[in-house]
Amino acid sequence: MRLFALGGAGPLAKSIAGAIGVELDPVEERAFSDGEHKSRPLVSVRNEDVYVLAQLHAHDGKTPGDLLMRLLFFLATCRENGAARVTAVVPYLPFMRKERQTKPRDPVTSRYVATLFEAVGTTMVATIEVHNPAAFQNAFRCQTSHLNAHHLMAQRICSIARSPIVVASPDSGGMHRAGLVREAVQQETGRDVGSAMMEKHRSQDVLTGTQFAGDVAGADVFIVDDIIATGNTIVRAAEACRAHGANRVFAMATHGLFAGGAEGLFAQGVLDGIVVTDSVAPFVLPAEAEQRLEVIPTGELMGAAIARLHGGGSINRLLNPRM
Predict the structure, then answer these.
(1) Taking the model in full, what pTM does it have?
(2) DSSP 3-state assignment of 292?
(3) Any idea where the Ribose-phosphate pyrophosphokinase N-terminal domain is (predicted)?
(4) CA–CA dist 206, 36 (Å, integer)
(5) What's CA 229's distance to the chain center, in Å?
(6) How far out from the chain centre does Cα 45 lie?
(7) Which domains does the chain have, with CATH numbers?
């Protein structure tokens, strides 16, 4: 097995390698003066099972599109140099939120990205918590492995919460995701856990909808989402929970993008805590905001997944340890 990390061996890459018990293999990455670039493995990949870790959220002045192109070129290079299998390991996979046409002539970017991965000979794409897992799986004709942090989140909820507990979705589209976290909390605690949902409609980045469903009075509420970008969706749901009598309100998301700084999310009195994973770390936030942020590490989860993919183990049992 070969394990490469593009963009430098950051903390997450080192954590994944440590969880597997291997060293990251060396990569040459060069940027040219005109903006072009090249990357190549510095060890042989012939007949190897190759895993390429890349963090594709915007960072270090590079856009998700820039970083995706670098990854695609490197995957193709490994294939061209004889790799037996090539797996793209992308903790956050961009362009997945647009998986269907909602307006005339809309792009379906999830399918276009899938086509690009397939075109360079990718064997598998492994990621954590895409916006719509069913759409993700249907978009790709190569193999996919969809991981989630539901049990990691459930364990953290159990350590924070006082009874009663409610797991809430900030919109109707996230009800299934919140339901899975709720079930994981019930497995951990052996107690009933409530559910709630906020109505949301979005048009040209304008959010509307005021209906709220669920009993949150006197409860610790955990609003669960896949991504926190500007934080506006979470803030609306948090304010509704407080208006309906919640005791404490926390936000939990797999990917903390925090676009534009997400200032409203960190304002005093909105949330009692914000919990995300390290899928897009390090975060670009003011120091006072970072102090209010709790980060769940995913290195062991992703390392275990890679080890099972390489050895033919069960990903389902990894994600559902109580089965």
Answers:
(1) 0.92
(2) coil
(3) 1-121
(4) 37
(5) 12
(6) 28
(7) 2-148+300-319 (3.40.50.2020), 150-297 (3.40.50.2020)
